[in-house]
């Protein structure tokens, strides 16, 4: 403890010695004597001693007095210091107008700090009428002297076109000057310009280099963007672990979007071992700051019971918070909660309201859900025209279930004139995406020749796809086609196999046809087909 005290005392002594030596005084008494004799430099030094508590107890009023005496003699440093005293309200009532007056006097004598601070006051309209042109003028004077903060601010003004004509090339020039002096914010903005190719030739590698310089100084936005560069492999080798590292640094500084992305990486196991509990923790931190995407994701975690005990009430709460901010996926999920009565009282009207809000923003699944509500008349008057309209919107975005349902409406003539060709079009698009019901329906259109030329081979192909996903009628039709030789050589073994699968899934017509086919088979063939049917069901769930 004594050694530590000795070191601290030594440091204070060295500071005081350096202060006196630099200011040309051998000590407080000498400085005071010279100040009282009217030496402006000594007066400024004495004000500094009182202001900083060097060689004397801190006394802002005394500091103010001596700064003022020197400033009135035109001593530049005291004019600036006096401006700071008025700005901060130290030893005098806070007065931004007086601060600006003294900054101006020092600035006119060429003091870079005063020029910068005067520019800042014009930029913010503090103590002077806001005037971006004046701000830019004073920033430029300080920047040309190498004052890093003014170089950065002047870069911003050229970038935004505030007080100067917008000029991204000049913005890049000033950002670079500040960045090369180590200013983290300037390094970050220079990185942005390289990333976007504004004022400089687009160069992801240079963008990553400047982001890194800024990020290593702890600049949160740069850490976040560097994380994005790593996760996308822009300008650097794609690396989820490095992305995670930088997102975590940003997240630990409280950056909500980074917290949300970090949570998603833990949820998916990207760059780290999958950890739903850790995901929930970061989603919650982000959600509590009001980030709608995280609120939605947190609601989804509670809804599914991932990383937390399943809790529909909590799920509905977080879905609502995000939904009220206009986040379309959350609005759709909240609508689903009302439709099912999970975490809220079942209410089709409320479900409709939230589906509509989401659907009007263009979310395909909400448009599909809204189409179903109108088509089925769930809690509202059935309206097939409205059902068609919303299903068409969802289908046009590639929503497979909407495409299937739209195809079915054209196929059956529900709410629209029957049109097999339109039905085929939508069944086809849905089937190609793997929708099992659409694959069966598309296969059936080829089977009967509705909207297409009858083609048993194509029909069999789509029935097989649908059968593999558990569509019983597709399994029945496959058996029937093998039994009759439609589109394929007649094969009792294959017919019995698919009819057995459909029978096991509860289809009575398949059972009848299977028994008929069995009359043409030996016991060994039947046993082999039964065994194969069991294996097929195991492999296809």
Please explain how this structure is put together.
The chain is mostly helical. Among the domains are: 182-253, Tetratricopeptide repeat domain (Serine Threonine Protein Phosphatase 5, Tetratricopeptide repeat, Alpha Horseshoe), CATH 1.25.40.10; 470-541, no CATH class. Helix content is 73%, strand content 0%. The chain has helices at residues 2-23, 28-36, 40-52, 60-72, 76-88, 96-108, 112-124, 132-143, 148-160, 168-180, 184-196, 204-215, 220-232, 240-252, 256-268, 276-287, 292-304, 312-324, 328-340, 348-360, 364-376, 384-396, 400-412, 420-432, 436-448, 456-467, 472-484, 492-504, 508-518, 523-539. Helix 4 (60-72) packs across helix 5 (76-88). The longest helix has 22 residues, at 2-23. The protein is elongated and about 130 Å long.
Question: Which CATH top level class of the domain at 182-253 fits?
Answer: Mainly Alpha
Report Rg.
38 Å
How many helices? Answer: 30
Low-pLDDT stretches = 1-23
């Amino acid at each position: 403890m004594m050694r530590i005290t000795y070191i601290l005392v030594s440091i204070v002594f060295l500071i005081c010695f350096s202060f006196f030596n630099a200011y040309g005084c051998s000590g407080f008494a000498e400085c005071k004597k010279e100040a009282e004799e009217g030496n402006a430099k000594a007066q400024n030094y004495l004000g500094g001693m009182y202001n900083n508590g060097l060689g004397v107890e801190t006394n802002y009023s005394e500091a103010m007095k001596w700064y003022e005496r020197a400033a009135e003699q035109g001593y530049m440093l005291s004019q600036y210091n006096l401006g700071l005293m008025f700005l901060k309200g130290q030893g005098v009532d806070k007065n931004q107008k007086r601060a600006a007056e003294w900054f101006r006097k020092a600035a006119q004598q060429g003091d870079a700090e005063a020029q910068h601070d005067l520019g800042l006051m014009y930029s913010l309209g503090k103590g002077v009428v806001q005037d971006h042109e004046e701000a830019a003028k004073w920033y430029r004077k300080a920047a040309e002297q190498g004052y890093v903060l003014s170089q950065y601010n002047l870069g911003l003004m050229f970038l935004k076109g505030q007080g100067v004509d917008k000029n991204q090339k000049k913005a890049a020039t000033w950002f670079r000057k500040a960045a090369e002096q180590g200013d983290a914010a300037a390094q970050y903005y220079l990185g942005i310009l390289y990333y976007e190719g504004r004022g400089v030739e687009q160069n992801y590698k240079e963008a990553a280099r400047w982001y890194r310089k800024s990020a290593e100084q702890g600049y949160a936005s740069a850490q976040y963007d560097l994380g994005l560069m790593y996760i996308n492999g822009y300008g650097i080798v794609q690396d989820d672990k490095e992305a995670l590292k930088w997102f975590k640094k940003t997240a630990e500084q409280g950056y909500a979007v980074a917290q949300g992305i970090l949570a998603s990486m833990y949820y998916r196991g990207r760059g780290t071992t999958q950890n739903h509990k850790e995901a929930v923790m970061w989603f919650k931190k982000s959600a509590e700051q009001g980030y709608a995407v995280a609120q939605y994701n947190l609601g989804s975690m509670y809804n599914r019971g991932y990383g937390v005990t399943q809790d529909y009430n909590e799920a509905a709460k977080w879905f609502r918070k995000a939904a009220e901010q206009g986040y379309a996926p959350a609005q759709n999920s909240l609508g689903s909660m009302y439709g099912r009565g999970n975490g809220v009282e079942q209410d089709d009207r409320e479900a409709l309201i939230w589906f509509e809000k989401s659907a009007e923003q263009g979310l395909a699944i909400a448009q599909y859900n809204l189409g179903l509500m109108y088509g089925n008349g769930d809690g509202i008057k059935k309206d097939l025209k409205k059902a068609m309209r919303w299903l068409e919107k969802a289908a046009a975005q590639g929503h497979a279930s909407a495409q299937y349902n739209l195809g079915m409406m054209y196929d059956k003539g529900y709410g629209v004139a029957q049109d097999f060709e339109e039905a085929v079009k939508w069944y086809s698009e849905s089937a190609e995406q793997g929708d099992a019901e659409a694959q069966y329906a598309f296969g059936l259109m080829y089977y009967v020749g509705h909207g297409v030329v009858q083609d048993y081979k194509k029909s069999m192909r789509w029935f097989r796809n649908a059968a593999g996903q558990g569509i019983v009628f597709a399994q029945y039709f496959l058996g029937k086609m093998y039994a009759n030789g439609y589109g394929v050589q007649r094969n009792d073994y294959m017919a019995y196999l698919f009819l057995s699968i459909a029978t096991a899934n509860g289809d009575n017509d398949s059972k009848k046809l299977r028994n008929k086919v069995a009359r043409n088979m030996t016991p060994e063939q039947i046993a082999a087909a039964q065994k194969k049917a069991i294996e097929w069901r195991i492999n296809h769930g």
